[in-house]
Amino acid sequence: MKATRLGSRIVRGAFFARLMTRAVEFLKDPDKLRDLVQSAGSKAEGVRASDALKEIWGTLMAFLRLLRAYVRGDYRNVPFKSLVLIIAAVLYFVMPIDVIPDFIFGLGFMDDAAVLAWVFSVVQKVVDDFTAWEGSRADAPPAW
Prior knowledge:
Low-confidence stretches: none
Distance between the termini: 31 Å
Order of helices and strands: HHHHHHH
Mean pLDDT: 84
Strand content: under 5%
Number of helices: 7
């Protein structure tokens, strides 16, 4: 099954629907969202060499930078639905137990990568606009 098809199936499921609801809650609490971004960054650094994450590494880092800029109030040009999808995808990545538990060697991050890739396919224009904005700033913080 192609990654985007797997991602699409996961995103259409009840588990991801609950993550979308939680994502809205994270939007209401900037401290909670900041903690999520920090947790995701730490987890990402720990699994950086994972084969499953290599193809979507740049996407994951762009999602995290966008969320950090959003929490700081530096960048708010993100449609609500796109923001909720990105947060839900990051929540999915952070959760150790999901469709394929992360501790299963060699397979554990395939579903995470599929979800991240699918969400990126939906919000690519939003992320492209953010990275263009990010690149235009003289005082841009260093990449993740």
